[in-house]
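Action item from last meeting closed. Structure (205 res):
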């Protein structure tokens, strides 16, 4: 727009060029997920991120021999002790008596021990994903309890002195929607590590 000698505007069809700033390079801009990964607490510890599809983080089962050492040792050693006793006494001190004693006592002690171990360890388990914690119980008939990480109100770990020595303990998880503890699992190996993983996924603000 030009002006004449009197200062009036004269439309001469001229327009000043509009300056357009250069747009930022689209390839240099970070993806949304990359930006979220930078602020994601689990990802900083080498764990799956708390966003996106559900992924399994940890599956843990109760310890057996560490949790019940006395009974386990007795059941393991009883067949050996019985065999040694059968071969020691003069009236039964023959190899065949010792072999039969070992066989019978092994069946009586080791088979129940194996079944006990299988039921105690495979019949219970705790699975932690990047979305929730799931408690599973049972072999034939199964039951599950779960708590979303966003709803976790408290994670409690109970350990006796012996449990601290052998690094096992009981863990309890309570949600904000209930006054009770929804998930309780005994004899878990390294329960403090389990609590640390859950704390990485639950909101602490």
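Sequence:
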């Amino acid at each position: 727009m030009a002006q004449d000698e009197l200062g009036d505007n004269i439309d001469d069809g001229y327009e000043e060029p509009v300056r357009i700033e250069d747009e930022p390079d689209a390839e240099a801009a970070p993806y949304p997920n990359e930006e979220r990964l930078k602020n994601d607490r689990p990802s900083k510890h080498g764990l799956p991120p708390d966003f996106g599809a559900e992924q399994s983080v940890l599956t843990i089962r109760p310890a057996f021999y560490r949790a019940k050492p006395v009974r386990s040792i007795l059941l393991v050693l009883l067949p050996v002790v019985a065999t040694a006793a059968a071969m020691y006494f003069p009236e039964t001190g023959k190899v065949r008596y010792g072999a039969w004693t070992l066989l019978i006592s092994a069946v009586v002690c080791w088979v129940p021990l194996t079944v006990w171990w299988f039921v105690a360890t495979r019949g219970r388990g705790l699975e932690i994903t990047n979305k929730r914690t799931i408690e599973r119980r049972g072999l034939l008939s199964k039951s599950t309890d779960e708590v979303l990480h966003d709803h976790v109100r408290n994670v409690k770990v109970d350990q006796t002195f012996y449990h601290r020595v052998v690094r096992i303990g009981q863990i309890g998880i309570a949600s904000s929607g209930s006054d009770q503890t929804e998930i309780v699992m005994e004899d878990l190996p390294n329960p403090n590590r389990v609590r640390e993983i859950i704390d990485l996924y639950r909101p602490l603000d």
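Note appended to the action item: The first strand starts at residue 2 and ends at 3.
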